[in-house]
Amino acid sequence: MAFVSEAPLVSRLTRRGRLMAKRTxxxxxxxxxxxxxxxxxxxxxxxxxxxACGSDPDAQRxxxxxxxxxxxxxxxxxxxRVTPGTGPEWTKPDPQSVDVVAIxxxxxxxxxxVSVHAGEDGGPETGGYLAPGYRGHGFGRExxxxxxxxxxxxxxxxxxxxxxxxxxxxxxxxxxxxxxxRVAGPPHxxxxxxxxxxxxxxxxxxxxPRQCGGPQAQWLSVS
Length: 223
Ligand SMILES: CC(C)(COP(=O)(O)OP(=O)(O)OC[C@H]1O[C@@H](n2cnc3c(N)ncnc32)[C@H](O)[C@@H]1OP(=O)(O)O)[C@@H](O)C(=O)NCCC(=O)NCCS
Known about the structure:
Blueprint (H helix, E strand, L loop, with lengths): L14 H7 L9 E4 L2 E4 L3 H10 L3 H7 L11 H6 L16 E8 L4 E10 L5 E7 L8 H16 L4 E7 L3 H10 L2 E3 L4 E3 L5 E10 L18
Antiparallel strand pairs: 1-2, 2-3, 3-4, 4-5, 6-9, 7-9, 8-9
Helix pairs in contact: 5-6
This protein binds coenzyme A (COA).
């Protein structure tokens, strides 16, 4: 994917302009900048774009979503073209996951998604994915660093874990580059489609986590 420049001045008088300029969290959602990306609770269209970011066969090799969750072509290409800041409010978030979309402000594209969700043991886990055009450039480090920021500085979680299927070197190296360390964990990881694979586990801890004014992960016990 080519990184197409967009005019940098977005009017704050429009809803899109306000969304793109927002960098603080409120009860409607999270918003923070990290590295190349703005991470934000998505609009419905941005969420559709984010789902498309992980729907290609290469990503599904590792993500293993249920078939009904995967966006097929030609919708996938169409959804990847969504203009960030457009679309209605996202009304059906997964009740057991706090998701933020990675927005590339320079290119004016949704580039991926990172979440903090309940893992198999009920404890907080982070995970995510990038759109095909954003893989292989080291952006995975920023994506997973954003997962840590979300967990520790927004959701008040002192510990967050992540699992990667053995062999997913790009994921494992990106998690470690973001600051997570390898730890022991259950030998297998079960994907949403039921496929189980051998797992590497990672963890990150902070002593003094914080909560922001954004939606909190009530289903997780804050440790
Ligand atoms: C996982 C993901 C977020 C990683 O982000 P990324 O920016 O594409 O990661 P990169 O390709 O830059 O790889 C990170 C590192 O692993 C190395 N690497 C990647 N694949 C490798 C391989 N097969 N063998 C050896 N090294 C490899 C890269 O060279 C890079 O090394 P560096 O740290 O020395 O620069 C992204 O690839 C993705 O979205 N994948 C699809 C979905 C997915 O797997 N999600 C995670 C599920 S747990």
